[in-house]
């Protein structure tokens, strides 16, 4: 359940979107805690599906039917895992993996960057890259 929520919460930038996280959390609760069948075709437009479920008060009915402790535990677990994923993505290793994955688009050679770290006169390049990354 948590894995599916996190996987669907990733936006086009490759990072978890808080809005998508909230939407897919609720869609997954509907999938797991009701007899409503959510097809892959329906998931092609998750925003439309979510809106329909909210307008028809399905999500509210399911959340009211669940023990509050259970809802909060699942939500807390999902948020904890999302924060762990975001912390990893924002770590040096995560950033390097992202850069390496986007190598063809950015033409940035990670090996050259690592070699640059050993050359104090070229450390300015690293500083410029880190400032651009944010």
Explain the overall architecture:
The chain has 134 residues and is mostly helical. It is built from 10 helices and no strands. The mean pLDDT is 83.
Unreliable stretches: none
Evaluate the radius of gyration. Answer: 20 Å
SS-based class: mainly alpha
User: Which word captures the global form?
Assistant: elongated
> Can you give the helix content as a percent range?
over 70%
Share in β-strands: under 5%
- Helix tally equals 10
How far is the N terminus from the C terminus?
Answer: 32 Å
The largest β sheet comes out as: none
Q: What is the average of the pLDDT values?
A: 83
**SS elements, strand count:** 0
Oligomer: single chain
- The topology string of helices and strands comes to HHHHHHHHHH
Write a brief structural summary.
The protein has 134 residues and is mostly helical.
Describe this protein with a few key phrases.
134 residues, mainly alpha, 10 helices
List strands and helices in order, with pairings.
Layout: H1 2-9, H2 18-33, H3 40-43, H4 46-55, H5 58-65, H6 68-89, H7 92-101, H8 103-106, H9 110-117, H10 123-133
